[in-house]
């Protein structure tokens, strides 16, 4: 393996490891912080509904709060695994840092020889694959993208892999969700407009 290929391989593997670390931290944050945030928001909305009974979308807000309550019940199932997610995030962060160090060491090596790095690289891979938590909390993947690109030092990965914002930093599932919501809104607006027009000619 030549130097350029090795650097690109390290960057790709660094992305996988860093994303895995942030996905575990995201699950940990969602389990521990989201119920408190949602509880406060629900209480605030409930108070507003009592104070202003005729506010628009009152019924829709109530339905939304019910769905949020169901989501919290779903998250509660993962409560016992919170420490596992945190510990796995810490473990993967250490491997990520070692991968980054190996990347810069190889990059600065003017007499690069893959054999000098092969054992260390394979050890990193073995550590990475030695343990994994496959079942993550819902939406942790979206949160992990934010944590990876805005809370972690990943400029070396972005530069090596030439990552673009919309193509690489925004999750595909989030793009699909936003597009679906946009289409639904357009359909609702069109339906409301058509209903109003028909009402004018009656």
TrEMBL record:
- UniProtKB keywords: Membrane, Transmembrane, Transmembrane helix
Is ATP-binding among this UniProt entry's keywords?
no
What the entry lists under Pfam families is as follows:
SLATT_6 (PF18169)
Q: Which residues form the SMODS and SLOG-associating 2TM effector domain?
A: 1-178
**Transmembrane stretches, start-end:** 34-52, 61-78, 173-193
Q: What is this protein called?
A: SLATT domain-containing protein
């Amino acid at each position: 393996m030549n130097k350029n290929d090795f650097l690109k391989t390290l960057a790709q593997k660094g992305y996988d490891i860093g994303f895995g670390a942030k996905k575990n931290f995201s699950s940990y944050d969602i389990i521990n912080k989201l119920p408190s945030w949602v509880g406060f928001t629900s209480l605030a909305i409930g108070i507003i509904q009592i104070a202003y009974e005729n506010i628009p979308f009152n019924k829709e807000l109530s339905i939304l709060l019910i769905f949020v309550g169901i989501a919290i019940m779903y998250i509660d199932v993962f409560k016992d695994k919170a420490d596992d997610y945190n510990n796995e995030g810490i473990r993967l962060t250490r491997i990520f840092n070692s991968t980054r160090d190996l990347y810069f060491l190889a990059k600065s090596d003017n007499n690069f020889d893959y054999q000098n790095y092969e054992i260390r690289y394979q050890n990193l891979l073995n550590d990475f694959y030695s343990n994994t938590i496959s079942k993550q909390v819902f939406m942790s993947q979206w949160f992990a993208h934010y944590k990876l690109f805005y809370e972690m030092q990943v400029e070396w990965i972005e530069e090596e892999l030439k990552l673009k914002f919309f193509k690489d930093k925004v999750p595909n599932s989030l793009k699909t969700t936003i597009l679906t919501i946009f289409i639904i809104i357009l359909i609702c607006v069109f339906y409301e407009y058509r209903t109003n027009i028909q009402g004018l000619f009656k």
